[in-house]
Write a structure and sequence with these properties.
The complex is a heterodimer.
Chain A (H helix, E strand, L loop, with lengths): L32 H32 L5 H23 L7 H26 L45 H16 L5 H11 L13 H4 L23 H4 L2 H17 L1
Helix pairs in contact in A: 1-2
Chain B lengths: L13 H4 L17 H36 L1 H10 L2 H26 L3 H33 L17 H36 L8 H26 L2
Classes of the chains: A mainly alpha, B mainly alpha.
């Protein structure tokens, strides 16, 4: 380097070294290994915390039937995840020591994600709302247009896929009936009860199955653990769905029957 | 605070020192005034790319939120089918790998060639471990049970007709994430190869290490959210 190296202009450009091979007078920040290790330990601690929180909640529910509201579970887990994500961004990704423009790019992106989620949730939560300007169309007793038999459009009547042959039944029931039929064909000496016994024994969380109409669950002596259905103590809120409009009356009654018989058992 | 000016002055072996790919022999592109500007520009570009990655996963998270609100029973059952121990194990694996890759950047900044390579190797082992746990304890047993996405669904003990939708979201979310693990491991493998062969990265030339590390941290970030959403919230 010549004498001109000391005469960099305001932009830090050195005419003697136009490609900047030697201009590293200030250097980049190197994050201390102590900070990195500390951040790792904090992250592992928060992972243990969120798992402990989850298990504590499950235990309270199973052992004492204490049903915390769903939002406690969600807010707790997401809060811890956000703290962990902030730590990773600040220290591992070095945003704290970086040019603020990179942080700005990330925050602007998160703002866009927020808008995305906000409008999706807004849509979902207002599907049941009726706009004022449509009040006039609602009549006592309905308009006479049947929702059970919507107008048929041949274009949408094509076969879905060779795998989906449910004969009008729901996919779950078809799969189960196929499995039972296959089991009985393979073991001619066994009955449907044996199939249920096999499947209950295999399940990690045996529930009383709504389709177990013979109540083999009780007959086989399997203990009960809490299913994720609405009960008088625990309410599972559905949003954005109006079952009565989507399901045919017979279908809806079938589901209700399953849930009702389950509740009656306990 | 320590800076790249405090780097070790360990000389490279003779056959590497004169190689044009050795970090001391690298020059900034001719359209950049300084190395620093090239580094900053490259890093900003990487961050902009990472924002698009965040938006990609935001689509999956939004789908999760919408279907969760629509079919809470199916989502509650779905999370009960998953074993939090494997999710937590994979979280620990990814957090440790994020830490080692952050250390790899630090070693490149300080010209600590030996520990740069060791840190990268540990990171790659963690990546392999993550994929192994995912396949061996999660994907393969679940698919054998018939807990498959959409029309491939074949699990006879399902409780809710929307469980195939849960599995679709589970496999798409974790599958795209696993794809990112593989891409990130490939990038870091490339960094490892070049530092092994040429000592290509050092205090004035570590853009590739830094940007690959940023990508790897993003993989970690996504899992930090996927883990509670899929395994812990019921």
């Amino acid at each position: 380097m010549s004498h001109a190296a000391n005469h960099n202009d305001a932009l830090g450009w050195n005419p003697d070294d136009p490609h900047g091979t030697n201009t590293h007078a200030h250097g980049h920040v190197v994050v201390s290994w102590k900070i990195q290790l500390g951040v790792l330990l904090v992250l592992l601690f928060f992972t243990a915390l969120t798992v402990a929180f989850y298990n504590l909640e499950q235990w309270a529910e199973n052992a004492f039937s204490i049903h915390l509201p769903l939002w406690v579970n969600i807010v707790g887990a997401m809060l811890i995840a956000s703290i962990k994500a902030t730590l990773v961004c600040m220290y591992f990704m070095q945003l704290r020591y970086d040019k603020p423009l990179n942080t700005f790019a990330l925050l602007f992106c998160l703002f866009a994600v927020g808008l995305f989620l906000f409008f999706s949730m807004l849509d979902l939560s207002t599907r049941g709302a009726v706009n004022k300007f449509k009040y006039g169309e609602i009549q006592s007793g309905g308009t006479g247009v049947s929702l059970d038999a919507p107008p048929r459009d041949e274009r949408f009547d094509a076969r879905l896929s060779p795998r989906v042959q449910t004969g009008g039944d729901n996919l779950i029931n078809t799969v189960r009936q196929n499995a039972i039929a296959a089991y009985l064909a393979e073991h001619p000496d066994k009955t449907e009860k044996d199939w249920w016994a096999k499947m209950y024994a295999k399940q990690k969380h045996p529930h009383h199955h709504w389709a177990d109409t013979e109540n083999y669950f009780a007959q086989l002596g399997y203990d009960h653990s809490e299913p994720a259905l609405s009960t008088s103590q625990k309410r599972v809120v559905r949003t954005g769905r109006t079952d009565a409009l989507e399901l045919a009356p017979g279908h809806a009654a079938h589901n209700d029957h399953g849930a009702a018989s389950h509740n009656a058992d306990h | 605070m320590q800076t790249t000016l405090d780097a070790y002055d360990t000389p490279a072996p003779d056959h590497i020192r004169s190689h044009p790919k050795h970090w001391r022999n690298r020059k900034a592109g001719h359209h950049w005034r300084t190395h620093d500007e090239e580094f900053d520009g490259s890093k900003l570009g990487m961050w902009l790319f990472l924002t698009t990655e965040v938006l990609l996963f935001a689509g999956i998270f939004c789908g999760y939120a919408v279907f969760r609100l629509l079919y809470p029973e199916a989502w509650a059952n779905g999370s009960h089918y998953l074993d939090w121990r494997f999710g937590a194990a994979n979280t620990v694996v990814l957090l440790i790998s994020s830490w080692t890759v952050a250390n790899a950047v630090r070693c490149a900044q300080l010209n600590n060639q030996k520990w740069l390579k060791i840190n990268l190797i540990i990171t790659l082992i963690c990546a392999a471990l993550f994929v192994f746990i995912k396949l061996k304890f999660e994907y393969i047993p679940k698919l054998a049970d018939g807990k498959a996405p959409g029309t491939f669904f074949n699990y006879p003990m399902a409780q809710d007709p929307h469980e195939p939708l849960w599995w679709s979201l589970y496999y798409v979310g974790t599958g795209i994430h696993a794809l990112h693990v593989l891409i990130g491991a490939t990038l870091l493998g490339w960094v490892l190869y070049r530092s092994w062969r040429y000592q290509a990265y050092g205090p004035t030339e570590y853009t590739m290490v830094e940007n690959s590390a940023l990508y790897w941290h993003l993989v970690d970030l996504v899992w930090i959210f996927l883990f509670p959403l899929l395994y812990l919230i019921h």
